[in-house]
Amino acid sequence: MTTKATLEKTLSHRQKEVYDYIRLFIEDNGYAPTIRETAEALMLSSSSTIHSHINTLIRKGYLTHTAGGVRTLALTRKGKRPKVVTQAGIMRWIQDQGIEKTHDAAVYNLLADLQEGIQSGRIC
Asked: Rounded to whole angstroms, what are the CA distances from 32 to 10, 14, 28, 66, 105?
């Protein structure tokens, strides 16, 4: 039985490690890791320990799963973190746009200024 107190408790250090690994795996691969993959990634020899942490994350509302299915863990709205744009991501995006090839002067100036601002530290 899940109580309100259980749902409001913060995650332990190990639960956060398990959750972060699962979240990143899902974001990178589009599907959930297996229990064994999670245990190996976190260098734990016991799958039952990971299973226990995952059940706790499900009880606390961070994950859901479909009983009897393989790789059915999913993130819940509670567990999802907002997307964060990094400077490296912006720089990679600018390079992908090929600003040298941009014929629109306004777009070129905006991207060039953004790139220069990041490189100079003016934009953090």
From this structure: 23, 18, 10, 12, 44
Measured in whole angstroms, the distance separating CA 47 from the mean position of its chain's CA atoms is 22
* Three-state secondary structure of 30-77: CCCCCHHHHHHHCCCCCHHHHHHHHHHHHHCCCEECCCCCCCCCEECC
Task: Look at residues 72, 46, 63, 47 and name the one whose alpha carbon lies nearest to residue 11.
Answer: 63
Closest C-alpha to 95, from 123, 118, 75? 118
Tell me which residue has tokens 């990679």.
Answer: 92
What pLDDT sits at residue 42?
A: 92
The Cα–Cα gap between 46 and 48 comes to 5
Full-prediction pTM beyond 0.70? Answer: no
- Return the sign of the alpha-carbon dihedral for residues 108, 112, 114, 115: positive
Q: What is the Cα–Cα distance from 58 to 72, expressed in whole angstroms?
A: 12
CA distance 39 to 32: 13
**pLDDT tens-digit readout, 111-123:** 778 778 777 777 7
